[in-house]
Amino acid sequence: MLAIEGVSKRFGGLWAVRDCSLTVEQGTITGLIGPNGAGKTTLFHIITGFYRPDRGRITFRGEDVTGQSPFRLFHKGLYRTFQIPRAFPEMTVLENLMLVPGNQCGELLWNPIFCPRRVRKEERLLLRRAQEVLEFVGLAPLAGALAGTLSGGQKKLLELARALMAQPKLVLLDEPGAGVNPTLMNKLAARIRQLAQGFGVTVFLIEHDMDLVMNLCDPVIVMSEGRVLTQGAPAQVRTDPRVIEAYLGGQYAVA
Amino acid sequence: MDVLVGILNYLLFFSITAGVYAVLALGLNVQWGYTGLFNIGVAGFYAVGAYTSALVSGPPPGALDWRVFGGWGLPFPMGFAAAGVVAALVALLIGWITIRLKEDYLAIATIGIAEVLRLIIKNEAWLTNGVWGLKNIPSPWFQPVQSGVTAFLAARPQLPGWLVSLLKGAYSWVYLGLLAAVILALYFLVERALRSPWGRVLRAIREDEVAAAAQGKNVAAFKLQAFVLGSAIMGLAGSLYAHYARYLSVEKFEPLYGTFIVWVMLVAGGAGNNKGAILGAFLIWGLWAGTDFLTGYLPLSDVRASALRVVLIGVLLVGILLVRPRGILGEEKFVSRLFKG
Q: Where along chain A do its domains lie?
């Protein structure tokens, strides 16, 4: 599904990601963990086209997509959410979702002017889909609220809902559980699992909540200092001494 | 009675000027209100439209003119259309270069470009007649209306004086009607374009460009479309001004009257709301005209009085924004109106 080969990204004198290679297999929920500053989010930015890598190659579904712009990657079936939710605050929750699907005929300026009927038909379909997705994530009562008024956890759910609207092949979730309370967390984990099993979307997610990662992900990839440290089944990664060392800052002691 | 006719004629003149500003504010609303494009070069596109229309529909150069170009005397609708098209082309060129700039940088670029356009108009006399300005720009249907009125008055010599002076100004009513029709048509066109999935993408871009790109939207392309559409509307406003004023000079397109006031109108009326843009134009132009009377009563020199007007307008804008931060009419919650009912 996704292959990263020898990708590097440097900010000034710091290699945020250095010679990083990994693959995400179709149909999996692959977890990406690692201590703060390991380069996880930077790697996500590179994969989704927000940063251009200094070196290396990214292949998505057999096609070299290195350095392609984010909106093009969206249309190829690659979707990403943000660590800090980026809803459109002055838009309603409903329209935050209706915006997402690609290739809407109403997005061409002349269609709403000259063929409003066609756009209206499409809008009704989008409305129905958005309502279904809102039911699914449990935000239906807030459909008419401005997204800026949602709580932090609700915004996380909105990010997930947008991912559902996008109907991607692969979704990159950047800390979907950060700032979410434990009750909501269980619901979130169930929704992500449903996304993968029910909708056939491959999931690649960054998460610091180890319970969520261990429950949900297989395989788990561990990054440290811009490189892949190890990868494997959750149980295997959890007991790997190198992983524990990385989290406890052992690498500095060795250095 | 004569005083009343005077007031009426003043109101007429006032409404026409405010109407031209309403068109400018509608154009700026597409750019700033919906898309968040910080264009402070409104005057540039306004001037391009005015001069284009004057060159296309105006008289050929006279013996004393410096210009050697234009003056094809084509009918007003063609000059009007050309004003929109040329302003759009200029915007396309400028936008293609600058649209990727972030908010404040776009502002600096557009203010610079508007000044460049103004200086071109001032100095390229072969095209624009430079500081001598363009004269005798025809008003549409002026001759037929005027001769009709003359004939009507000649046949009825017993009419009271106030009615005669009222009828002599009849053309302004015709022009106001034309202007109102244009504003109405543009309002419906812009509403239809913006209250749609297209407008929804624009608002998303205004809210968060990065997130809009993550939702698969080609941000640069949408911004360029909004910039070109808004600028074309500003060009049309230029044409409407030129054919009423009948004389163009470059001072009319200085930033205060061409850009600053339009911004005040849009922000006061309600950025993101097309009705607000039109309301703001009439309200602010009314207050602007009002401050002229007000400062007239003060023992100040003309220069000081006009500086004071700008201060008053600034204070007023602050006042409106304190009471209603989103303008008098805020924007509506749902962008698209096509999925309801």
A: 2-87+155-254, 88-149
How far away is chain A from the Cα of B323, in angstroms, using its nearest Cα?
A: 20
A99 and B192: CB-CB below 8 Å?
no
Chain B contacts of A143, Cβ < 8 Å? none
Continuous segment of H or E residues that includes residue A20: strand A14-24
Alpha-carbon gap, residue A243 to A236, rounded angstroms: 10
Residue B316 — pLDDT band, cuts 50, 70, 90? confident
- For residue B226, give the chain A residue with the closest CA: A109
Q: Is B165 on the interface with A (CB under 8 A)?
A: no
Q: Sheet of A2-11: strands edge to edge?
A: A14-24, A2-11, A55-60, A63-64
Q: Please state the CATH superfamily assignment of the domain spanning residues A2-87+155-254 in this structure.
A: P-loop containing nucleotide triphosphate hydrolases (3.40.50.300)
pLDDT at site A249: 63
Cα–Cα distance, A85 to A162 (Å, whole number)? 11
Question: Quick one: DSSP state of residue B133?
Answer: -
pLDDT digits (tens, 9 = 90+) for A97-124: 999 999 999 999 999 999 999 999 999 9
Contacts of B159 (CB under 8 A, 6+ apart): B153, B167
Residue type, B223: K
Between B193, B206, B213, which is nearest A109 by CB? B193
Length reported for chain B: 341
Q: Where are the beta strands (DSSP E) in chain B?
A: none
Is the CB of A92 less than 8 angstroms away from the CB of B333? Answer: yes
Kindly tell me if the per-residue pLDDT of A250 is higher than 60.
Answer: no
Express as a percent the part of chain B with pLDDT over 70: 100
**In the sheet that A78-80 helps form, which strands lie side by side, from edge to edge?**
A78-80, A170-174, A202-206, A29-33, A220-224, A227-232
Cβ neighbours of residue B186 under 8 Å, at least 6 residues apart?
A: B23, B26, B233, B236
Q: What is the pTM of this model?
A: 0.92
Mean pLDDT computed over B269-279: 95
Q: Is the pLDDT of residue B106 over 70?
A: yes
For chain A, say whether B332 makes contact (Cβ under 8 Å): no
Cα–Cα distance, B226 to A47 (Å, whole number): 30
Q: How far apart are CA B198 and CA B226, in angstroms?
A: 10
Sequence-distant (≥ 6) Cβ neighbours of residue A38 within 8 angstroms: A223, A224, A225, A226, A246
Please answer yes or no on whether A124 and B339 come within 8 Å at the CB atom.
Answer: yes
Token pair 């962008």: residue: B335
Distance in Å, alpha carbon of B312 to nearest chain A alpha carbon = 31
Q: Which residue of B has its CA nearest to A84?
A: B211
Are residues B334 and A94, on separate chains, in Cβ contact within 8 Å? yes
Name the residue facing B192 among A112, A126, A127 (closest C-beta). A112
